[in-house]
Write a structure and sequence with these properties.
Layout (H helix, E strand, L loop, with lengths): L2 H18 L6 E3 L9 E6 L16 E11 L3 E4 L2 E4 L5 E6 L4 E5 L2 E4 L6 H7 L5 E4 L3 E5 L2 E4 L7 E4 L14 E5 L2 E4 L7 E4 L2 E12 L7 E3 L4 E12 L7 E3 L2 E5 L2 E4 L5 E4 L3 E5 L2 E4 L12 E6 L12 E12 L3 E6 L2 E13 L5 E5 L9 E8 L2 E8 L3 E7 L4 E7 L2 E2 L5 E3 L4 E6 L4 E4 L3 E3 L1 E3 L5 E2 L5 E3 L2 E3 L43 H9 L2
Parallel strand pairs: 3-6, 4-7, 5-8, 6-9, 7-10, 8-11, 9-12, 10-13, 11-14, 12-15, 13-16, 14-16, 15-17, 16-18, 17-19, 18-20, 18-21, 19-22, 20-23, 21-24, 22-25, 23-26, 24-26, 25-27, 26-28, 27-29, 28-30, 29-31, 30-32, 31-33, 32-36, 33-37, 36-39, 37-40, 38-41
Antiparallel strand pairs: 1-2, 2-3, 34-35, 41-42
């Protein structure tokens, strides 16, 4: 093993000891080669499974980077077949050394299971194609197919950075027009971890196994951009997107047939533009108590940082939610930005958004929904512990109500009354009530609120249909306290004077009057 490789392995092992709390690290393997004899091993001991909440993690395990074909020199390969049938090995591994590697129209197949799906999910140790160690990989055309458990299709691992890969070591993968399929459980089609960068164009992706997202931004996230293509998942707990990083998708089709469409972990950003997203989440994932199509959450129970947030942005797009709540925010601060989005909610309960405690034991539930030129329909559920702000801008319409009465998918009561709720109605935006509604504050023109026969209660001030303004605008600013009624004083009776009798000349009568008190 040359000095450069050893230094980088020592760097990741030292960083891993900080992240995972290691007590020892062991290394092994051969020198740089372009054959199957190249391997490296890293002893790691994480405390939390990152890729599967249902996976039982061993106390200690050794990670070996092995492959049938290892490429660590600058090269171009065309129309070659690569195959791996072994456990815990990749078909192709690009150990980059900052070298540019191009692979055109490959046929990559991978069978054989991972013995530790936590590590195959973090490091890509059982993938069809793995890029690592500052690799600069370009792949055009061809196919990648895996059938084993814990066997990703294309994996970018940038964990050789000096601080544990949180900013990445520079590993970058650029792909176009590749068909990627995985059929095993715990087998994402595309994965980036430890800050790796992935740029994809016109990809065709299908996963069939459980816990197998089409796109996974896993441990310490990554930076992924997608242009065009189709991404379909068929397995349980397999969202089209599962992200702990920064993801931008343009002009693509995303379909999750048995899972959430998008899952975003705390302090991560996902942006969909000119994209169709369809989700049919009939089974709940991990600790979840609700069904939903877009989940913004923090999986670490009790953790909350007011300076971070999970962000979901969608523009010029269509979102079809077949089952459950359209948006669900729990144990984090989540922001949903919608601009010119068509939402099709096929669930009979018609829940547009919920912000409330869930199975991750978090009570810090904060949500902001910003909508421009978007029509929103349904109920917004805000638990007593939650905070919610609705900002409607030009061209947006909300037909629905805000409520704090929440029960989970098992029928258990979560909340009886709403938390702190703010509604800001901008110029050109409207709100039509479908039920009596209580909110904490309102800002906007009440002429643009159609009470529709219902009552709007703003922090104790009630607006009823008969009291609704008809001619001139009325703006209700955010009250800070519920108005208190002034105590009604009992009317004080004025002392009644006894009628004054007419003067009399009777001296006895006059003396009696003077003695009265």
């Amino acid at each position: 093993m040359n000095k450069q490789i050893l230094i980088r392995l020592l760097a990741i092992s030292t960083a891993a000891s900080v992240v995972f709390g290691l007590s020892a690290c062991n290394f092994g393997g051969q020198g740089e080669q372009t054959s199957a004899t190249s391997s490296s091993s890293i002893s790691t001991e994480p405390t939390t499974a990152e890729t599967s909440e249902t996976e039982t993690e061993p106390d200690k395990s050794q990670v070996d980077f092995k492959a049938v074909k290892t490429i660590s020199v600058e090269t171009t390969e065309k129309k070659k077949a690569y195959q791996s049938k072994g456990a815990d090995e990749c078909a192709v591994m690009v150990n980059g050394q900052k070298k540019k590697v191009s692979i055109a129209t490959p046929a990559i197949t991978k069978t054989g299971d991972s013995s530790n799906t936590v590590y195959s999910g973090m490091f890509g140790t059982n993938s069809g194609l793995l890029a690592m160690n500052t690799a600069k990989l370009y792949v055009t055309g061809g196919t990648i197919a895996t059938t084993g458990k814990g066997s990703a299709g294309l994996f970018a691992f940038a964990g050789f950075g000096e601080i544990g890969g949180i900013t990445g070591d520079g590993t970058t993968v650029t792909t176009s027009e590749i068909k990627v399929t995985t059929s095993g459980d715990d087998s994402p089609a595309i994965a980036a971890t430890y800050g790796a960068t992935l740029n994809m164009t016109k990809m065709s992706v299908i996963t069939d196994g459980k816990n197998s997202p089409a796109i996974l931004l896993g441990k310490d996230g990554g930076n992924v951009t997608v242009s065009g293509g189709a991404f379909v998942t068929n397995g349980l707990y397999s969202p089209a997107v599962n992200s702990t990083g920064t993801l931008t998708i343009k002009a693509a089709n995303l379909v999750a047939n048995n899972s959430e469409g998008v899952i975003i972990d705390d302090n991560s950003k996902t942006t969909l533009a000119d994209t169709n997203l369809t989700a049919n989440n009939t089974k709940r994932t991990g600790n979840a108590k609700f069904h939903n199509s877009v989940l913004l959450y923090q999986k670490e129970a009790g953790y909350f940082d007011n300076n971070t947030m999970a962000s979901f942005t969608m523009s010029n797009a269509t979102l079809t939610s077949k089952f459950g709540h359209v948006f669900h925010i729990t144990n984090t601060k989540g922001v949903v930005n919608l601009s010119n989005v068509k939402i099709i909610n096929e669930d009979k309960e018609g829940i547009l958004l919920s912000v409330c405690p869930d199975g991750w034991s978090g009570n810090n539930n904060v949500a902001i929904l910003n909508a421009t030129n978007t029509e929103l329909t349904g109920k917004i559920l805000v638990a007593k512990e939650g905070k919610f702000t609705l900002n409607l801008s030009t061209g947006s319409k909300f037909t629905g109500t805000i409520s704090g009465k929440i029960t989970d998918a098992d029928g258990n009561e979560v909340s009886k009354e709403p938390g702190i709720t703010h509604v800001n109605l901008g110029p050109g935006a409207t709100w039509t009530l479908t039920e009596d509604t209580y909110i904490t504050s309102f800002s906007g023109d009440m002429n643009n609120v159609n009470l529709n026969g219902h009552t709007l209660n703003v922090s104790g001030e009630t607006t009823s249909p008969t009291a609704a303004p008809t001619n001139k605008p009325v703006t209700v600013k955010k009250p800070t306290k519920k108005p208190t009624k002034k105590p009604t004083k009992k009317p004080t009776k004025k002392p009644t004077k006894k009628p004054t009798k007419a003067p009399t000349t009777d001296p006895n009568a006059q003396n009696n009057q003077n003695q009265n008190p």
